[in-house]
Structure formats: C-alpha cells, structure tokens
Amino acid sequence: SIPLGFFGGIGAASKTGILVKGSNYLEALNNVKYVVFDKTGTLTKGAFKVTSINPAAELSEDELLEYAAFAELHSTHPIAESIKVAYGKEIKEDQLDGYNEISGHGIQVNVQGKEVLAGNIKLMNKYGIEAPNESGTVIHVAIEKKYAGFIIISDEIKDDSAKAVRSLKELGIKKIVMLTGDAKAVGDSVGKQLGIDEVHAELLPQHKVEEIEKLMQSKSPKEKIIFVGDGINDTPVLARADVGIAMGGLGSDAAIEAADIVIMTDEPSKISTAIRIAKRTRRIVW
Ligand code: ADP
Ligand code: MG
C-alpha cells in the first residue's frame, strides 16, 4: 500500500502546476545526483526569430526565405515556425511533394519539382554540399544540391532558467548538464550564462540517450538522474532517465506522454520546487 503522505505530496505539487504521475517518482526526487536539461524549449523559450538572411549570389533574400518557408511547411520544429513567421505569406501545399524530415538535421522536400534541403551543416555534409561555418543557429539551404545561402535565427533564454540552475545547486545537486542538437557556440553560450557545469552540443537524438547512459553508469542505483525536455526528439531520453520531466505548455504531446512528471507552467525552476516537496513529503511519511 502507498503511504497516505505521498498523496499529500502529489496534491501539493499539482497545486503549483507540477503533475506527478506516481508516488515512486516523488520518492526518487529525494536522491537526485544529476539534472540533465535539453536546451531548446526547455531552458530557452523555443521561440526563434530570424535575425539575418544571406542568399548566395544568384538569389534575393526574399527568394531564399521563400524556399526555406516552403521546405519547413510541414515541420512543427521551433526552427520551422520562426521561418514561416518571417515569411508571413500563405504557402500552397500543392507545390510540395516527397516531404522528408531528417531528425537532428532538417528537411528534404521537392518544391515545384526542385529538390530543396533546409537544415544544419550536418545535413549539407550528408549530401556533399559545401557550406560556410557560421556561428549561431543556422539554417542552410540548397536547391538541386547547389548551395543557396543561409538564414540565422536566435532564441532567448527563459527568464526563469538562471533561478532554476541556481536553486538546484543550492539543493546540493552534484552536476547540471545541458544536451542540445544545436550548434556548439550556441550551447556553450547558454551554458555559460546559466552556470551549467557541462554542455554537450550538436547531438543527434540517439546521442542524447548515450550521454544519459554514461551518467547512469557513473552513479549508484540509489542515486537518481532527472532529464528535462520538451520535444518529440526527447522521448527516448525521457524514458531512459530515472525521472523524466516534460514541459507541459510548450512540450510536444509525445514528450508529455513519455514523462513521469509534467511542469504545466514551463518553468524549469519548478524542478527544485518538486524536489523540496518530495523532501517534505518524506518527512511526513516516515
Ligand atoms: P534541440 O536539441 O536544440 O532541441 P533538435 O534535436 O530538435 O534540437 O534539432 C537539432 C538541430 O537539427 C537543430 O538545431 C537544427 O540545426 C536541425 N534541425 C532540426 N529540425 C529542423 C528543421 N525543421 N529545420 C531546420 N533544421 C532543423
Ligand atoms: Mg528541444
């Protein structure tokens, strides 16, 4: 039987917008050694804005943005949303075919019969297309395998994220890690601003699972790892960690489903709130 105190704990958590899917997860929060964060949508707002459009010689800025927007039509990734918002015009579905979203890379699709690639440098490399090494979150575009230019976008750190990291350190968490598929320069900059101990960037979704596996091996079974994420890409990592926590507002349905705890307010500082509730609950139960 489950001690009554746990229900009190789960209830207290839910009043502050933290949904705990079982008393075992609340109990696990008493022994957290590492907290691992995803970046985009978790520590940052996931609301990118286009900051520059840099077409190759034969295209205009409008044309480059148009190709990128067409390519991103079917994607719900925060990057895709920013491109579509910047374009601002209606896109006709019937101009597209053969849509292919390549996880951690970008998009391949035929636009008016021409093959368009839109994504990061890894996507360009995959198709043997040379692209400049730009810093920041960059979407490179190629048309019919010919390099067509790049668009730079930028995201903002959530107001709450610095407090989230600080309060976890105050609770004695040994190490705070950030995993991201985004560029190294972007990851390092966010990590530095927030005081995160370790940053791993340019990761494919399977690499995020590998990083969690490594951390799992560097602790005793009693010690627990939290992973906090928001995207469809994060589902395997949420499942692998001892406690998977998803952002309930910004998060994808798949991430919310896979998580053990859901933060309805999207505030990462609610993780330390949950840990404090767990500690208080334990005092009542035992
Ligand atoms: P994160 O770890 O920041 O949540 P993802 O794993 O979702 O990032 O994506 C990693 C990288 O893959 C992105 O930073 C981007 O370079 C590229 N990418 C993913 N989806 C898209 C897309 N729809 N359009 C362009 N690039 C994309
Ligand atoms: Mg994400």
TrEMBL record:
Subcellular localization, as worded in the UniProt entry: Cell membrane
Family: Belongs to the cation transport ATPase (P-type) (TC 3.A.3) family. Type IB subfamily.
The name this protein goes by in its record: Cd(2+)-exporting ATPase
Full protein: residues contained: 413 to 698 of 749
